[in-house]
Amino acid sequence: MTKTLHKIALGCLAVAYTVIAQAQCPDITCTPHVTDTNDVGMCDAVVTFFDPVGIDTCAPVASQTFSYTGTEQTFTVPAGVTSITVDAYGAQGGSNSPSTNVNFGGYVQADIAVTPGSTIYVYVGEQPTGLPGGFNGGGNGETAGAGGGGASDIRIGGNTYAERVVVAGGAGGGGLWSGQEVHGGEGGGLIGGPGYRTSTVNPGGDPGTQTLSGNGTCVSLNNPAVSGGFGVGGGPSGCGCEGYGGGGGWYGGAGSGNCRGGGGGSSYTDPAATNVTHTQGVRTGNGEVTISWVGAGGVMTQIAGLASGSTFPVGVTTNTFVFTSGGVDDTCSFNVTVLDLEAPVVTCPMNVTDCEGATIITAATSTDNCIGDSIVYTLSGATTASNVFDLSTVTFNAGTTTVTTVALDAAGNSDSCSFEVVMNALPTVSLASFSVDTLCVSYAPIALPTGTPTSGTYTGTGISGTDFDPLITGVGTYYITYTYTDSLGCVNSDSSAIVVDGCAGIDENNALTSAKVYPNPTTNVITIDLGNHKGSVDYSLVSLEGKVIEKVYNVSTSEIVLDLSQELAGVYLLRIDDNTSFKITKVVKQ
After folding, report:
1. Which of 321, 339, 357 is the last residue of a domain?
2. Is the pLDDT confidence value at 148 over 90?
3. Is residue 3 part of a domain?
4. SS3 of 342, please?
5. Quick one: DSSP state of residue 580?
6. Which residues contact 162 (CB under 8 A, 6 or more apart)?
7. Which of 27-41, 483-497, 534-548 has the lowest mean pLDDT?
8. Residue-number span of the structural domain to which 398 is assigned
9. How far is CA 305 from the centre of its chain?
10. Global pTM?
11. Same structural domain for residues 223 and 305?
């Protein structure tokens, strides 16, 4: 209890008063942290748990007492109650004596952990009044002997003997035979009491223990024919004299004939029980069970997180609960952690074969139960590429490169695959630069060099087939490109410079200087006017590709007419030669 002193100033008067704080009656017991793994193929998991338990410690102790009814009874654990105290009494054994017998039932007290809202099954033992054994495990008597007393117990999770968590043993049957006291064994204790007549030197039925029932008497001593079993006492049959039944218990006591008492049944508590007390031989009459608990009260509310049975995402979700009683709150939190243990699946592209240089490679793909995984490439072999995700424009050197692909998700799970990039080397192309400077007197075309490679395609000004004719080009520098494609489809090219200088394409003879060609350009015919030239000439008209259109020798007229109407539009070379000099003129056909 907390006291707080406050002062309030009223004008010149200061008033002091004391506030007594309310005791912290609500008490919440939090759920332990929960860890689960993702559901298959999902980035989450359905998780169930028990909500925290609240109790109002200021509430009074409540109890419920169960008396013998001869049937199963039930108790529902109140909301907020997680522990109960059980006081259980086994029944007294039966007796055919008008005097008081000492065959009393056992007593057990224990604290048992329970779940709010769950059902507890209650069985209360009976003291028999005749031969039949008492309800809940008492063994039958015989002739004029009495039956054994029934055990009292509570059962959690089911209503079979195996679900008993607290058992108070019943006593064995006893009475009077020929004026001699026949004592039934006391019920209770981890080992029940033995039966006997007058004194223990005349033994009767053995008691039940935690693991078995002893033997009884039937014509002979220590006879297993009348032993008890799990939960039930033994009973004599055809044993002669008067027979007395064993008491019920965890293991029932043995019955006994030949005028000796039956054994008592043993008590039992679940190993998880606390504050346990066992007392033997304290109950007269029928048994009894009392269940006590501290009143719960209050209201439990979840104010953060997700409810039990919800789908929780991968990661940590904090659940917060508040228990309210009497206007006072108590709050607790616990975490639900869902682990992602599912690895991504990465799929590599097919192996790639290409020519050396920039190559487009299809990126690997991956799937994962959670979005956000990344792909990392590790490259080995001959390569100039970086270890990066984007391989769309990577340059690979000639050779084989193994690309190992790893898909890694945010939780550290991974998958990998590999593929190969095979780069074929480009063919070798090498053309030397050379110069022609005496071609003005050489009429034969000059072939370009051959060698490695020996086949391919030439392109460039002045090319005719695989030859270069400087007379077509005139003075200048020309670049001839040689392109080669090998058997694998890889292409390479190189350019070689050809320098044409000197008098190539220039007329050195004044005798043909006055020769004219017109109209030029033309659409049909051209006229060659030789002017004042004396003697005969030869002339030829060829295309730039080297095709001979017309070639005539020993023409002695001063004018020559050529019909180009059947030729394609383009540039043609007209050469006039009188065996001592020549003149080359370009003719354009439109």
Report:
1. 339
2. yes
3. no
4. coil
5. S
6. none
7. 483-497
8. 345-423
9. 22
10. 0.51
11. no
Residues 359 and 457 in one domain: no
Do residue 179 and residue 256 come from a single domain? yes
User: How far apart (Å, rounded) are the C-alpha atoms in residues 270 and 282?
Assistant: 21
Number of independent structural domains in the chain: 5
Sequence-distant (≥ 6) Cβ neighbours of residue 589 within 8 angstroms? 521, 522, 523, 564, 567, 568, 569, 570, 571, 572
Residues 383 and 463 in one domain: no
> Which domain-ending residue is among 384, 403, 423?
423
Is residue 494 scored above 70 in pLDDT? yes
The more confidently predicted of residues 379 and 486 is: 486
Sign of CA dihedral 47, 48, 50, 51: positive
- 279 and 138 fall within a common domain: yes
Query: Does 354 share its domain with 229?
Result: no
In a domain, 4, yes or no: no
Looking up residue 307, the CATH number of its domain turns out to be 2.60.40
486 pLDDT band, cuts 50/70/90, is: confident
Same domain, 49 and 83: no
Query: What would the mean pLDDT of 199-217 be, rounded to a whole number?
Result: 95
For the stretch 540-587, pLDDT in tens is: 888 876 688 888 888 888 888 888 888 888 888 888 888 777 777 888
Contacts of 588 (CB under 8 A, 6+ apart): 520, 521, 522, 570, 571, 572
Half-sphere exposure in the Cβ direction for 156 (13 Å, CA): 19
Rounded distance between C-alpha atoms, residue 371 and residue 390, angstroms:
19
Instruction: For residues 165 and 70, state if they share a domain.
Output: yes
| Integer Cα distance of 511 and 408 in angstroms | 87
Please list the residues that pair with 47 across neighbouring strands.
310
Mean predicted lDDT score pLDDT of the chain = 82
SS3 512: helix
pLDDT tens-digit map of 313-355: 999 999 999 998 878 889 999 999 999 999 888 888 888 888 8
